[in-house]
């Protein structure tokens, strides 16, 4: 695809109504570590955007800033309609580690955010059942985390994030620790849920292949302090399924994205080239 066509696609995605706008967002930690160096980013409502970048470039920091778990030290985070911050339950966060409570069952773990929101177990029950079904864990409601495989624990973690029916779902390398086969399966399951539930998704990964398979839009970040090096709109049609991974179009996108990532890693890459 020509650079001009790519730029046009990026522009058309950028004009979709933003749910969230980051303007010049920077983060310097105590002791002076500059994690983010001025990130401008629009998150479109209903979109699937992936942050792709090398280890330590500030992806988790950016995700935590989006979630309101960390405050930026420069710039601002604006929600659509001028709202200061989303209400409780409007954001689901899936951490890299499943972080389940070992003493609670699958349904007990998934109940947690609803309990925090003040729902009784009886009120929560239908939603817990629905979330368990959504991630394909029927029959395991009473199991404990130690009785599950790594992939199943990650499914519980995703169910716990989506049981509140969030508008915005943030996933921080959720599949990085899993074997390739489980990872590919969960990629497809996640896309199906995204298409049926209408979430806005921000996904973090190191994997070019995963980013191309999942995303409408890929934000390539520079090494620390992280900035946006390039934005690409991936025009492969949805639903995306296993067969897509074998196509020339998918391969071509993976190559393009790899090149952008390599360019972003180059010592003199400046942080502003648009896709
Ligand atoms: N709470 C913290 N206090 C101090 N420094 C931090 C903190 N969290 C992150 N950092 C630093 O900020 C930089 C960016 O970290 P961050 O975790 O955001 O990177 P990342 O892109 O998510 O990396 P990875 O891909 O390895 O998960 C790193 O240099 C890290 O040491
Ligand atoms: Mg991280």
Please specify the SSE layout and strand pairing.
Blueprint: H1 3-14, E1 18-28, E2 34-44, E3 48-52, H2 59-67, E4 74-79, E5 91-94, H3 106-116, H4 121-134, H5 150-162, E6 168-172, H6 180-197, E7 200-205, H7 208-214, E8 217-221, E9 228-233, H8 248-265
Parallel strand pairs: 3-7, 3-8, 5-6, 6-7
Antiparallel strand pairs: 1-2, 1-4, 8-9
Helix pairs in contact: 3-4, 3-5, 4-5, 7-8
The structure holds adenosine-5'-triphosphate (ATP) and magnesium ion.
How far apart the termini lie comes to 11 Å
User: Could you say what the CATH topology of the largest domain is called?
Assistant: Rossmann fold
Could you state the CATH homologous superfamily of the largest domain?
P-loop containing nucleotide triphosphate hydrolases
> What integer is the average pLDDT?
88
Bound molecules: adenosine-5'-triphosphate, magnesium ion
Biggest beta-sheet profile: 6 strands, mixed
Cα-atom radius of gyration: 19 Å
The total domain count is: 2
Q: Structural class from helices and strands? A: alpha/beta
Which parts are unreliable, with pLDDT below 50 for 5 consecutive residues or more?
7-14, 271-275
Alpha plus pi helix count:
8
The shape is globular
Strand order of the largest sheet: 5-6-7-3-8-9
Q: What CATH architecture label of the largest domain applies? A: 3-Layer(aba) Sandwich
């Amino acid at each position: 695809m020509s650079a001009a066509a790519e730029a046009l696609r990026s522009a058309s995605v950028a004009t979709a109504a933003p749910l969230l706008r980051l303007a010049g967002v920077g983060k310097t930690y105590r002791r002076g570590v500059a994690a983010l160096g001025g990130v401008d980013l629009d998150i479109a409502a209903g979109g699937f955007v992936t942050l792709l970048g090398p280890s330590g470039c500030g992806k988790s920091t950016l995700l935590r800033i989006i979630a309101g778990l960390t405050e930026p030290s420069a710039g601002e985070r604006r929600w659509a309609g001028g709202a200061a911050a989303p209400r409780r339950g409007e954001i689901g966060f899936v951490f890299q580690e499943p972080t389940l409570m070992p003493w609670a069952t699958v349904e007990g773990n998934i109940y947690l955010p609803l309990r925090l929101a003040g729902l009784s177990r009886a009120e929560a029950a239908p939603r817990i059942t629905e979330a368990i079904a959504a991630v394909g864990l029927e029959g395991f409601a009473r199991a404990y985390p130690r009785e599950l495989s790594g992939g199943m624990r990650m499914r519980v973690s995703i169910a716990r994030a989506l049981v509140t029916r969030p508008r915005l779902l943030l996933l921080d390398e959720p599949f990085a620790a899993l074997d390739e086969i489980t990872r590919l399966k969960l990629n497809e399951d996640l896309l199906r849920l995204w298409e049926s539930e209408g979430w806005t998704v921000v996904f973090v990964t190191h994997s070019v292949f995963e980013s191309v398979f999942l995303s409408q839009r890929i934000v390539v970040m520079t090494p620390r302090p992280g900035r946006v090096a390039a934005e690409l709109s991936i025009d492969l049609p949805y639903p995306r399924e296993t067969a897509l991974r074998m196509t020339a179009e998918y391969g071509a996108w993976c190559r393009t994205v790899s090149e952008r990532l390599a360019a972003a890693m180059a010592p003199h890459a400046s942080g502003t080239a648009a896709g």
